[in-house]
Task: structure prediction
Amino acid sequence: MAKTYDYLFKLLLIGDSGVGKTCVLFRFSEDAFNTTFISTIGIDFKIRTIDLDNKKVKLQIWDTAGQERFRTITTAYYRGAMGIMLVYDVNNERSFENIKNWIRNIEENASADVEKMLLGNKCDLADRRQVSKQRGEQLAVEYGIKFMETSAKASINVEEAFYTLARDIKAKTEKKLKEASNPTKSGGHALRAPEISRKPPVWLARCSIL
Amino acid sequence: MSSSVEIESLKDENGKNIYTVLCTFCSSKILNPGSSTYVNIEVAVKLHRMQRKDEEEVEEEEEISDYWMVDDMFTFENIGFSNTVENLKYLICADCEIGPVGWHNLTDQKSYIALSRVKHD
Result:
């Protein structure tokens, strides 16, 4: 059967336990059904389809599923990841401070060109806030990544955050494809970014997931 | 649950789903029309009954043999995959997480959505 989508991006959610990563994954956090049977087994990943500038984009979103309790995430988890959502809880100072550790972990384990974004979650609980929006913005500037405050519970910015990250990955992918299809005409060797020859094309990335 | 008459009205002459397949509870879109094929599985797979977390737990399985089969998991519009149990991953609604609505077979990579656990619109 013909492929029914244009792009497939593998995204990861990373951050301390309890910051609401799992809630970022779905729409109705309050009345989630999540049956006893399913909660016991646990959720591995979700597939979501979005429309970006008339292109059909499939997002495969993975949650660390408790691995983060060990304060480190293995290289295997990062394999093939094209985008990472770094999530902290604006009501939990510690989770914000740990973002730096998570970024170090990403730098050590993930592909160097993985697209990152910082999310300050649970911004609907204003009276309990420990981390100002400004500090989140500053940290994002420091790392040269995008930033958004979200509330999975109040559905604030969650979808936008995924669209933003996906749009940035799409732009990067298209740029790479363009570069790959237009090698230098003069001279014997075409210079290409090492990632392109090393990594499988987008549509093959799925092979690494199971 | 699904009578043969009912099934006939849901599939076209090639066995493809005529309607959009949606979550029964939150209407999250699972499959587009024409993206899956009807199969009747002789050895019906037992699926745990769907129940909410706040409901009293009932250890009950249901035998279902009518499914929409999907060759490639990325055909799904929105779907969730459970962790692996033996050779299967159970499928759940990506939005409200009700499930299992079917399963994914890791050996042949095919996915099966139970007709009786989704709605068609």
Summary: The first helix of chain A runs from residue 21 to 24. The radius of gyration of chain A is 18 Å. DSSP finds eight helices and six strands in chain A. The longest strand of chain A covers residues 43-52.
